[in-house]
Amino acid sequence: MFRASEGNPILLSHKLESIQTIPKYKRILAPRLQEIIKDMKNKMSQEIKGPDKAFQYVRPARYPLRVAILVTEKTTSTAESVTLEARQSNKTVIIGTKTKGLLDYIEVRNWELPAYGWRLAFGFARNSNIDNKGLTPDVKIQRRKADWISYASE
Questions:
Q1: CB atoms closer than 10 angstroms to residue 69
Q2: Residue 101: how many CA atoms within 13 Å on its side-chain side?
Q3: pTM reported for the whole predicted model
Q4: Domain residue ranges of the chain, discontinuous segments joined by +
Q5: What is the mean pLDDT of residues 142-150?
Q6: Is the pLDDT reported for residue 7 higher than 90?
Q7: Distance separating the N- and C-terminal Cα atoms of the chain
Q8: What is the residue-averaged pLDDT of the chain?
Q9: 66 near 93, Cβ under 8 Å?
Q10: Is 36 exposed, middle or buried (0-12, 13-18, 19+ CB in 10 A)?
């Protein structure tokens, strides 16, 4: 979800300009960015849904054959984001306990401030599907199980 504020379409327009010289990004990202910018301008002060991040591989790599990601209630924020994106691969299995559910604000942007080279970092978008809910693992492990790594390997 993106907040349609006065500044956010400007930031996205700068990003759109910066990818024009990279053919692959121009072809793939430019239409998505243009769509979000248009929605923001039409729905000022509202939250708009952006395109999902989906990865398409022409031919999956042979190795690794399987990838296990171990998660607990201490798995938060960026670790949840990485887990969510890795889950799109059929080679990936999420093992452990439910994550914390703190993937609220993502896509951090820096806004240059006029004095002393300071920058203000802020979340540009959010993911409400996980916030306060967490990710449920594909394979649950009892908290008391001693060696999670051996269990995941088996």
A1: 19
A2: 11
A3: 0.58
A4: 1-50, 58-154
A5: 82
A6: no
A7: 38
A8: 83
A9: yes
A10: buried
